[in-house]
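TA notes, week 10

Several of you asked for a full example with nothing omitted. So below is the full record: structure tokens for the whole chain, then the designed sequence directly under it. When grading your own attempts, check the secondary structure regions first.
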């Protein structure tokens, strides 16, 4: 018996030794990094103590990051096929609503990443996702397919109703909006012919209003049109240098405003007139403000209120714009190329990739950008909100950014910014431009690797030499 115990003890001791590492190697090989890919949709918690970033990426991943450190809190990886593609992401409270592969509607609890519920959608091409409700409160989530509209309860995902959309074989239904007053609006287009506006009742899915609006100048809704305020559709018309307004509730024809009549001067022929609206937040009506992009780097903040369309502020040298809300304050953030005091003498250094982008319209000399906040309802610039940062690569530009806003003790607006660049770098910044963390999400595209022995330091070589001598004795 004693001999058996002795052998067991020796066996356990040998197993323990086989799992040991030398003291100088501790911490060198015990790391693991997780990536999520390029952000398609993102939402940052607002408020002074906010710590979460919810994102959906091109790798079919829904994830949460700690916005203070950049660490992954949780992530869910879907199929690496079109069935797992994340088509939409919307936030309401602590829940994230997603559509994947046009077939699965899901609700996630964002604190721990648990799945609240999942609903299977009817077949068809996914077009849009929106909250819907009544009494200025979101109670449902509406899903628009190319030929069908369905309404689901936010609490459990159960289907309230599903209705076929008339004339779906000839009309391209692309926009979805709810003013939270018991109705859902669906907007469809026959290019260069007319708009079809359908109003569905939230209660039973019946069509309470249907109207056709002639729009021979309109080719697409995406990028060209957006919904603001209490159901007002605004569209840009570049060939006519005009903005068209139509009410989703009652309008049977558009109201046209020329840019010249609005006091917006054009230095050259207009080639684009895009509309950028604030995302729906699940509480109250949409903002009455929106951006008109009238050139690659020129944006005008507009407001439509009480039937009057007004330009609030004209911005030049713009890279990106966005909206953000904290408390009862809504701001617009404008990222611009910073040129003052930033001109470098001599030729630009050659980009490591061999690219020459100095002639591109988006090129920013010095590669330094600034972000400023403005009140959305007036265009007034908020003092002490400037944030500046510089990108290392000359031919890489920011292509999206998101804000984490909060109210300070003096009721002023503070913020942090998440910036994503074309090469999938994520920068999280705080004023006046200090980088809190950085993630290289381009590493999510790595498909193979090779182990390479790096040269040893003198101390490491001496240490390995000592072990080699002992092994040879």
């Amino acid at each position: 018996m004693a001999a058996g115990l002795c052998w067991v003890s020796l066996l356990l001791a040998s197993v323990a030794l086989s799992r040991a590492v030398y003291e100088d190697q501790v911490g060198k090989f015990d790391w693991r990094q997780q990536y999520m890919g390029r952000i398609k949709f993102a939402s940052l918690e607002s408020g002074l103590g906010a710590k979460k970033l919810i994102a959906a990426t091109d790798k079919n991943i829904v994830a949460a990051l700690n916005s203070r450190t950049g660490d992954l809190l949780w992530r869910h990886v879907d199929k690496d096929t079109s069935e797992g593609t994340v088509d939409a992401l919307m936030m309401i409270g602590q829940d994230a609503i997603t559509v994947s592969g046009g077939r699965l509607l899901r609700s996630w609890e964002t604190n721990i990443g648990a799945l609240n519920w999942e609903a299977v959608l009817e077949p068809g091409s996914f077009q849009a996702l929106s909250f819907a409700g009544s009494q200025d409160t979101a109670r449902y989530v509406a899903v628009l397919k190319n030929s069908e509209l369905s309404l689901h309860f936010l609490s459990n995902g159960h289907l309230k109703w599903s209705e076929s959309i008339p004339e779906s074989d000839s009309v391209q239904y692309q926009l979805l909006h709810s003013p939270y007053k018991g109705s859902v609006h669906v907007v469809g287009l026959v290019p260069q012919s007319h708009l079809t506006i359908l109003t569905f009742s939230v209660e039973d899915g019946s069509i309470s209003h249907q109207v056709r609006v002639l729009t021979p100048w309109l080719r697409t809704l995406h990028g060209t049109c957006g919904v603001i305020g209490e159901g007002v559709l605004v569209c840009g018309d570049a060939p006519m240098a005009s903005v068209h307004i139509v009410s989703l509730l009652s309008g049977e024809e558009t109201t046209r405003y020329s840019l010249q009549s609005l006091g917006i001067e054009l230095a050259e022929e207009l080639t684009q007139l895009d509309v950028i609206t604030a995302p729906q937040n699940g509480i109250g009506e949409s903002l009455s403000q929106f951006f008109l992009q009238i050139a690659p780097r020129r944006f005008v903040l507009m407001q439509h209120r009480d039937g009057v369309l007004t330009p609030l502020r004209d911005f030049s040298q713009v890279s990106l714009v966005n909206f953000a809300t904290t408390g009862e304050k809504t701001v617009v953030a404008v990222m611009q190329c910073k040129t003052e005091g930033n001109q470098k003498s001599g030729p630009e250094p050659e980009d490591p990739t061999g690219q020459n982008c100095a002639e591109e319209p988006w090129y920013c000399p010095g590669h330094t950008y600034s972000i400023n906040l403005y009140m959305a309802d007036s265009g007034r610039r908020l003092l002490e909100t400037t944030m500046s940062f510089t990108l290392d690569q000359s031919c890489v530009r920011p292509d999206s950014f998101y804000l984490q806003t909060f109210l300070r003790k003096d009721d002023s607006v503070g913020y942090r910014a998440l910036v994503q660049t074309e090469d999938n770098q994520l920068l999280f910044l705080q004023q006046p431009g200090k980088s809190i963390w950085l993630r290289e999400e381009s590493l999510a595209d790595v498909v193979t690797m090779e182990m390479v022995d790096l040269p040893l330091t003198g101390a490491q070589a001496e240490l390995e030499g000592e072990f080699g001598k002992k092994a040879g004795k």
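Confidence is low (pLDDT under 50) at residues 342-346. Use that as a sanity check on your answer.
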